[in-house]
UniProtKB/TrEMBL annotation:
Coiled-coil regions listed in the entry: 17-44
Pfam families documented for this protein: DUF3164
Organism from which the protein derives: Flavobacterium azizsancarii
InterPro entries associated with the record: Phage_B3_Orf6 (IPR021505)
Keywords (A to Z) from UniProt: Coiled coil
Name recorded for this polypeptide: DUF3164 family protein
Amino acid sequence: MNTTTPLETIDLTKFSAKQLKEALNKVDAKKDNDRQAYKELVEQAVPKAIFTLCTASEMISNAKTQAFQLFEDVLKLKADAFGIKEKQQSHTFSCEGGEITIGYRVTDGWDDTVSAGIAKVEKYISSLITNESTAALVDIVFNLLKKDAKGNLKGSRVLELQKLTKKIDDVEFTDGVNIISESYKPIRSVWYIEASLIAEDGTRTPIPLSASSVDFSKGYKFEFYNESVKP
């Protein structure tokens, strides 16, 4: 509990200039000590947290590696048993009490010719604006050509453009779309693993495998933001 007397309730005329100066010096000294203590605490806390998190990261890495090794053997046996080696993006395995999916994610990528294809499509499609109907079509195409925050097209939108080539029977438009589709160079990004527990009633409970999704240890609550913080 804060028992400090509010400054506005103190009659400063009862104190000499020397006493006031000494009081202010004590306040300043305490402030300096608190700030130094804060810096020292940070210096102690950061290395401890980094060590703990590095240890946890290594444990997750080892667990992920062991899981992939297990299922690599499973997939090899499956290929031998069924006479075909499947190379799809993900594989899902399940048993009575759980389910695991392993696979890799794909990031859209394009070579430098994509800009030429986009320019060609935009040039043709802009020439179509003659009325409200064609203006709506132009908006649709331009939305498909919109880039994301990283400046890339989305691969799924190219499929929509390819469908439009069948409706818009134009050599220039089709050529532009073909340039875009041929410039598509998807990149395999990360290998992932997802796991869920399956209850008797069929309810699935995902097993959190990242620091963001996992909860705190039982009994701990980070309540700093629930407290009133005064400047």
